[in-house]
Each structure stands twice: as structure tokens, then as C-alpha cells.
Amino acid sequence: MLAALALLASPAAAQEPPVVDTPSTRTIVKEGPTARHLVDGTWYFRLDDAFLGDSLRFWDQDSLDGWTPISVPSDWNATDILLDRSSVGWYRKEFDLPRVPRARHFQWKLRFESVNHRATVWLNGRKLAVHAPGYLPFEVDLKGLKPTDNRLVVRVSSLRGNTDLTHWRPARFNGFGTSTWWNFGGISREVYLRRIEGVDIEDVAVSPSLRCVGCAARVRVAITLRNMGGKKRRVALGLRVGRRRIELPSREVDGRARREVKTSFVLAHPRLWQPGHPSLYRLTVSAGTRRRGLASFRRFFGVRRISRDRRGRVLLNGRPLQLRGAAMHEDDPQTGAALSSSQRDALIGRLRALHANVVRSHYPVHPAFLEAFDRLGILYWDQAPVYQLPNRLLENSRVRENGVRVNRDTVLRDRSHPSVFAWSIGNELASEKQLRGRIGGGFRRYVRDATGAIRELDKTRLVALDRQSRLGEPLKSPAFRYISALGVNDYFGWYRSAAPGYPATRTSDYGAYLDRLHAANPRLPLFVTEVGAESNRDGPVTEKGTYEFQSRYLREHLGIYKKRRFLNGAIVWILKDFRAHTKWKGGNPKPNPPWNNKGLVDESGAPKPAFNVVARSFARTRPLR
């Protein structure tokens, strides 16, 4: 970080004129609007720890004094292992528009795949938009755009408030929020420039359904059109599925308005998507006039049926699930959350070597991950970024509303991916130890409202809640009536995992705990959504924190799960070590802060001994019984 600050003060950077690039036609993900241009090349950055950028008009500077060249995606605290400091950073990009055909009129948008945490966007000195939180995309209409020499400026604040959905705990150094994973700051995913000719296809949602395995599939498609012009416009629509072409009646869209067009078609003999056989269909939606195509949007979808039986089993295409996998964070010691394609490929390679068929995260991961999960037949437990909120915050109506909103946004982004089989509305909510599992009315209302909002958008998947496992806390909850699956985080024998007044748990206690939990909720599907132990050194198998302890711990817990046919899956915490916070111990008597060392792979990417232990267990466990 000190090196980065030195670069910011470099006089050489101040003397050079800004590099003006033209966005390229390269795209990182295959799905989405076809007329996209990656805003790559040279960007500029300056840190604003003193929060002076607004008053000094960083958003309207000609000079490069104080700015240093970088590339985007970029996290400014990517290499930080000491401070976990939230702050403000400014990103700047000079660009020309790509060449377009003459005598045709185009509008332009910017799409940000993720900015952590709050983004304020200016173009040519004009403020255009504010957006939060991170992990989710947003688009900005570009007003005041010029053919050449445009200046885009993005103010990124990683400061969190004490009612934020993930990083709500006050930090010691400045009072702003922090959490148990690193408080990254920056434009952590790609930025695209989108070309629009009058009519935009903003989204295409694909929702296949099967009445039974062996039945024809009904594929429902929802197309969001936007008329960028001021006059009403008639739009012709067409769908292509493989070699099949489907023409739709034209629709009128009012000027400056959006319209959702819903249609469906039948696949008489669908190829089914599932682990081991992830069959995908390609759908292209086009919009235009009778004479000219104006917009196109590409999706890949899969046909599968998710259902539940009376014994609490989840069925995929009629067969009970027995999933095994690992959770993941987007973190690299050099790039932070701003992962490159090769870094994502390396993580996916580790998942495949592990024989994983399910993945979980605490927030929506990069869309390229989902495309890979779709192709490889890896199921995804998709969690909105709502993390460990206590009862007192859930009593706040604004917090609940924000939580419901990010759940809706998560579903809107990911609902067309066949790998997504569960929507999780949050992790370890209302989990204060001193309350012994008691929950407040705010928590119940949040679960009710979040699950209701999700089901308005998607009725084909599970809606889940991830909670802690603790002895001495109630096995049933009034909130369980709203969900269709329960994830439980298992740290018996690692953390104390017991309510006050109860003895600390042992690994051998967990089987009986699962049995009681299932007996109390016999129709509610159960998944183990976390299980893990820290390891950062060799040592005795009885000593917490050693590679030997971690290997035995995971072997024994996976053995417990194997014996319980009612359990639908288990997800190890975590695939790779990541930064938590500067005082992190994680139950390890010899910790290595800030690293959470519960990974099967260390922060450098090297597998630990437990990796092979888990891989052998996963290889012997069929995902579909």
C-alpha cells in the first residue's frame, strides 16, 4: 500500500497527458447483450483517505497530478494484510467511442458488474448515478457523451455504516463498518460500454419447468424491453433456440418506457441438466423493426426439476440429492477480490479436483463463475449479501427493506442459471449467544418478506436460511414456516457451539444433533452449509490448528453426514484461505491473522493435506442417489 501511495505522488505521472483508449469488443462473460465493449486499457486512480475529493472536485480535473495509472478491475487494498481499513478511492478513465455505422443513431450505457461498496459516477463533469451495495451489477445511462475525449470518474467508498447488511460491526480505527471477511474497496469486476440503437433488451429471464421427469418442458421467457427514444415504437421480437426460430407478435413500447414481454415455448423431449450431464440450450432473443435488427441478447439455460418429498429430501430430476462441495471467497493475495480470468479458472480447477458438485458463497460471485458452474454441472447455493445481522438490527425496518432488496437483485441477476438451486436469504442471522436462540419479530418479518419477494420472481428453486448449530438452542423456529430448506453450519468440536450453561461440543455430538434437528423438522430439507477447522502448520493430530487435526476433523464429520440419509448435502468451509480481519483467531491457538486458515488450499494456492482427504470422500459420494 505504501508503494501505491508513493506512485500517487509521482511527478512523472503529473506531467504526462492522459491515455485515451477506445473500449474493446472483448467480453469476459458470454451471456448478456451482444453489443458490449469492455472498458479496459489505462485507467487512473487516487486514494482519498482524508475524504477531500468532493471538495477538490476530483470528478472534474484535467490534470493527472496525484493520479497513477492502473487497470480495472482493481482493489486499492488488494495486498493489505495489516490495516483492513475502509476508505474512499477515485477511478478515472478517458475514452473515445467505438466506431459505428454512419447515418445511424446510438445511445450508450455503462454496466458495472460490481463496485465495492458505494459508487458515484460522473461523466464529463456531470454526476449521473449513485449505487450500493457491491457484488451486484448496475447500469448508467450516459448523458453528455461525446464522440471523443470523454472522462469517466467513479468515486468508490468502502465505508460501511453500523446498519449495513454485511460489514456492520464498528471498526476500531475509524468507527466505520468491518466484518469477518476483508473490507475490499474498488471496481472489483469489469465495466462495459453498451451500444443501443433505439431499443434495448435490458434482460432476458429464462425459467424452464417440468411437471415430471420424462415430460415435455415448458420454457418461460421474460424479456425486458426499453424504448430509449421519446416516441412510441413498435418492436418485432424473435427467439432462436438451436436451429429453431420462434417469431413473436410485435409489441408497442411507449417513449422513454420499459415493457416486459412474456412468452413460452415447449421442448418435447428435453435433455436434462444435472451433475455429470449438464445439458445446456442456447437462446438468442432479437428485437428490431421489420427491416433492421436493433438489439440481441444471449442466454444459456438448462432444464431440470427441483422438488421435495415428505421426508425432507430434495429431488433433482426425481432423484434424491447427496451433494458435496466447498464454499468460496473471491480473494487473492495480490489482486484482492478483483480476480482475473486465470485466477477464476484456478479456483474452478481446484473444485473439479475436489470432485465438488456444489458451491456456496456469502454473496453473488462473478457471473463468469456461474457460467462455469452451468457448463460443469456444479450446483450453486446462491446467498444474498446479508451476514450475521443481530436481532436489534433486524428490528430496523430500513435494514429489512434493504435486505429484501438485495435478495430481489440477486434473483434478478442469477435466475436464468440452471446451476442455482437455492436462494439463501442470509447467513447466521439473529444468532446472539446470550439470547439462546430466541428471535425477535423483526427477524420473522424479514424471513417472511424476503422469501415472499423471491417467490414472486422464482417458484422453481429452494428458498433457504443458513444458521448456526448450537447445543441448548431451540431446534424449531417460527421463521422456518416460510423457508423450503435449512442450512446449518457445523463447528462441533472446533468452536464451543453451545448456548451459555451448556458444555462445549465434541465432534461425536453432531450426529445426534442432526437427528434431533431432523426429528423436530421432518419435512424441512437439511444441508450442512459450513464445516471446517483451521490449519496453518504441522503438529499433533490432537492439536487444533494443525494440518493433521484438520484432516481428521473433516474425515470424521463427513463420515457423520454419510450415515444420515435425510441430509441433502454438505459444504466444507472453505476452499481457499482468505483474509478475515486483523485480530482473527478463528479458534486456532496459534493463529495467523488476518488469514482465515480453514481453507483446503492455502492463500498461495497450494493444497493442504486435508484437500486429498476431502477429495477421496467426495469421489466416493454420488451426487444423485
Labels describing this entry:
625 residues; alpha/beta; Jelly Rolls; Immunoglobulin-like; TIM Barrel; 3 domains; 8-stranded parallel β-barrel; 7-stranded mixed β-sheet; 40 strands; globular; disordered N terminus
Question: Number of domains in the coordinates?
Answer: 3
Strand content: 25-35%
Multimer state: single chain
Mean pLDDT: 95
What's the level 1 CATH class of the largest domain?
Alpha Beta
Helix content: 10-25%
Number of strands: 40
**Mind telling me the C-alpha Rg?**
25 Å
SS-derived structural category: alpha/beta
Q: Tell me which CATH architecture of the largest domain applies here.
A: Alpha-Beta Barrel
Question: How far apart lie the N and C ends?
Answer: 51 Å
Tell me the overall shape: globular
Describe the structure.
This protein is of the alpha/beta class and 625 residues long. The protein has 10 helices and 40 strands. It has 3 domains: 194 residues, Galactose-binding domain-like (Jelly Rolls), CATH 2.60.120.260; 103 residues, Immunoglobulins (Immunoglobulin-like); 303 residues, TIM Barrel (Alpha-Beta Barrel). An 8-stranded parallel β-barrel has the order 29-30-31-32-33-34-35-38, surrounded by 4 helices. Helix 9 runs parallel beside helix 10. The longest helix has 18 residues.
